[in-house]
Amino acid sequence: MLLSVCQAAPSSQSPGVPAGSAVGSVVAAGQAGDGSLIDRMCSDDARGLFCQCHSVRCTSAPAIPGATQLWPKLLAACTAPFRKKQRSLRRREPRRPPRPRSGSHDGRIHTGRMAVREDLERDGYCVVPGVVSEAKCDEYIAQYKAWLDTFPANNPVRSRLSLVKDYAIGHCEAAWEVRLAAKPIFASIWDTEKLLCSMDAVAIAPPPSEKDFDRGKVWLHCDQKATRQGLHAYQGAVYLEEATADDYCLRVLEKSHNCHQQFFATFPDARKKSVAKEFYKLTKEQVAWYKEQGCALKCVAVPKGGMVLWDSRVIHDNRPPIRDRAHAGRWRFVTFVCMTPAKWASEQDLDKKRRAYEELLLTNHYPSQKMRVLPDKTPSQQQDMSIKKHCKAAKSEDAKQLAGVVEYDFEDGEPNGRSAPVWLDK
Q1: 93 phi and psi, to 5 degrees?
Q2: What is the pLDDT of residues 231-280, one digit of tens each?
Q3: Maximum Cα–Cα distance for the chain, whole Å?
Q4: N vs C: which end of the chain shows fewer Cβ within 10 Å?
Q5: Across the strands, what pairs with 128?
Q6: pLDDT digits (tens, 9 = 90+) for 3-44
Q7: With 70 as the cut, is the pLDDT of residue 73 above it?
Q8: How far apart are CA 249 and CA 135, in angstroms?
Q9: Are 184 and 236 in contact (CB under 8 A)?
Q10: d(CA 187, CA 96)
């Protein structure tokens, strides 16, 4: 019937609508506000024909008396189920990582969803560009610098190897905004939008003084204990300022995630220590062992606004800038982000996360299973520099879900992500 209505539509030169015609009947219904006729005409079989005819044959519709009221209603009624289905499909399909901006970069940059997964599985790390726009990066850097200016020169911010773990810094506006921006990347990796996030540290370092350049110190370590088998998390670091291989950068033993269980089987003492404390720093002998397995040491370059991801089994550290680097005045501004499926978390895990959120405490990088809430060690004379309340971004629905404060509906038919990882007995 819709097809006949569209075919019967007069041209833009038609003076009016013939009384009793199909078009006239529908126009009259539209003028009278009678939606029942429109609903009856919008059968599943007719929707496709209507959509085609409306776009191709009915360009003269505005000339029909009453068409201004009729055609929008008819179009909305006929396409509503289609639009609802499309919205559902968009929610089901996690958003893909953004396309790279124009220009090139020395780092290993990956953008396709499958490419990111493949490189993470093969090499243990990859770089995703464009997670945060350059304009937003500059805005967040300005916020961090304004915060740094509140510290007196004789009592600067406390950090170690550029890492700032106190002052509730993981709850500042910039940190939460970056987490929300990074969520689509993690959603594409884990096949779900239902994620929990870490409330981790940030890294801030001014251009190095004479004593702060790279002196060859190595603190390669593993953040995944021996009892966590296989993939448990991808750690992330969003760079608000570019980092080349000459700057303050992440350093990894490429492909070392493939040797995780073999390493702990080879070094029983390392296994014991890692189980007691998630963090394990390697000895020179153990670093040499990884290199014998074909794991090359790489410095990872990351563009401004990009994010480097690495498997938690990967052996890594960070390395200060080298002397005579190309960008002598460059700062380091990094926000650490990690997300895993919320479905993995137990009620005990969620209780810890809620406490960390409510008390403005930081956590280690594991978001869903057996995370650690870190004690606040802000010096008493610097308490005024701490974050005192939740920012606007932290109070959003998305942020509260990421923090475990607002629960997800795991029965809504939307994907809940990959299966929970495996744990071994001690």
Answers
A1: -90, 110
A2: 999 999 999 999 999 999 999 999 999 999 999 999 999 999 999 989 99
A3: 94
A4: C
A5: 307
A6: 333 443 444 444 444 444 444 444 444 444 444 444 444 444
A7: no
A8: 22
A9: no
A10: 8
Mutual angle of helices 22-32 and 67-92, in 10-degree steps = 80
Q: Cα–Cα distance between 252 and 297 in angstroms, integer? A: 6
Identify the helix (H) or strand (E) that includes residue 135: helix 134-148
Strands (E), 176-277: 195-197, 202-205, 221-222, 228-229, 234-239, 249-253
Measured at the CA of 126, the angle between CA 124 and CA 130, to 5 degrees, comes to 155
> Tens digits of per-residue pLDDT, 330-355?
999 999 999 999 999 999 999 999 99
Strands (DSSP E) contained in 115-208 are 125-128, 163-164, 195-197, 202-205
Query: What is the 3 state secondary structure string of 14-69?
Result: CCCCCCCCHHHHHHHHHHHCCHHHHHHHCCHHHHHHHHHHHHHCCCCHHHCCCHHH
pLDDT on residue 99: 38
Strands of 130-279, DSSP E: 163-164, 195-197, 202-205, 221-222, 228-229, 234-239, 249-253
Cα distances (Å, whole numbers) of residue 39 to 31, 43, 47, 64, 78 = 15, 8, 11, 20, 8
Q: What is the pLDDT of residue 10?
A: 41
Tokens of 2: 């819709």
